[in-house]
Design brief:
It is a single chain. This protein is an all-alpha fold. The chain has helices at about 15-20, 25-30, 45-55, 60-65. It has four helices and no strands. It has one domain (about 15-70).
């Protein structure tokens, strides 16, 4: 039986990823993305755009995001 597709992928927007799992914000901060005014990111940028713009390994970021246990997903916060 094939494994299910990953919940997060490089062509989704940051906003879409946060809507799937609010803990994505913590992972982005751990990669020093969006944590301060000098490295703010837009929720309409794709994961790929953000990682390329800041020199972060896209696959490593996605792996961290996809390692989040869906069973522990808290409700998304309204914007």
């Amino acid at each position: 039986m094939p494994s299910p597709p990953p919940r997060f992928h490089a062509d989704m927007t940051v906003g879409e990823a946060i809507q799937i799992d609010a803990r994505v914000r913590e992972i982005l901060a751990a990669f020093h993305l969006g944590g301060c005014s000098s490295c703010g990111i837009s929720e309409i940028e794709t994961i790929r755009q953000v990682t390329m713009g800041y020199g972060v390994d896209t696959e490593l970021l996605l792996q961290s995001m996809n390692d989040l246990d869906p069973a522990e997903t808290p409700p998304a916060f309204p914007h």
